[in-house]
Specification:
Layout lengths: L12 E9 L2 H17 L3 E3 L6 E11 L3 H11 L6 E11 L7 E6 L3 H15 L14 E7 L6 H9 L4 E7 L1 E10 L2 E11 L4
Helix pairs in contact: 2-3
């Protein structure tokens, strides 16, 4: 595990989340797909390629002096995990392609291993003040968020037609504690800590 990054002496808390970062090749393939979708739906807030990831748990505001405790919880969560392969494949939308609010790329191979890891993270962080999610874990990569939901048959056709698209496969050997800073130009993510999964 890398050491916890300094968040700055004057910052009492940070917005944070736990994620799996994607490799360059997968992000590049997803960026090309986002460009194709953007041409059909410019009103969607599309995610910059450098921000693409799979969220394992959103933490919200975390007090800076609690980050060590969070990192220790993540180390405990991965103790019984091993590296696994992940495949990013197919498009979808929440709640449906015809009423899309969030456009996403799906997780195929590795979904069960990731779900088990997310469950261990939930269990490890609950005692340090982060309640379990009420909804079941849904592994996906958010590609865009619809600012004003509307029926858009063209976007729906593109999403439904992309159900079998393959974007890449990667080996997951770590998870990341990430910081999210919001501004008028969008979110900027930076690494707070890396927690490695034990090797086989």
């Amino acid at each position: 595990m890398s050491g916890l990054k300094d968040v700055g002496p004057d910052l009492p808390s940070v917005r944070a989340f736990v994620a799996i970062r994607l490799d360059d090749a997968t992000r590049s393939a997803l960026r090309a797909e986002i460009d194709r979708l953007r041409a059909a739906a410019p009103y969607v807030a599309w995610v910059p390629a450098e921000n693409l990831h799979v969220t394992l748990k959103f933490l919200g505001h975390v007090e800076a002096n609690s980050l060590d405790e969070v990192t220790a919880g993540l180390e405990a969560a991965v103790r019984d995990s091993v590296p696994f392969d992940l495949e990013i494949r197919g498009l979808g939308a929440f709640p449906t392609p015809t009423r899309a609010r969030v456009v996403w790329a799906g997780v195929r191979a590795g979904r069960e291993a990731m779900g088990a890891l997310a469950g261990r993270i939930e269990a490890a962080l609950e005692p340090v003040g982060f309640p379990r999610e009420a909804r079941p874990f849904s592994a996906h990569v958010t590609l865009g968020r619809v600012r004003v939901p509307r029926k858009d048959p063209r976007l729906a056709r593109l999403i439904e037609g992309g159900a079998a698209l393959e974007f890449g496969a990667l080996r997951v050997g770590a998870l990341w504690l990430m910081r999210s800073d919001l501004s008028s130009r969008g979110a900027r993510y930076s690494e707070l800590a890396v927690v490695s999964l034990p090797p086989r």
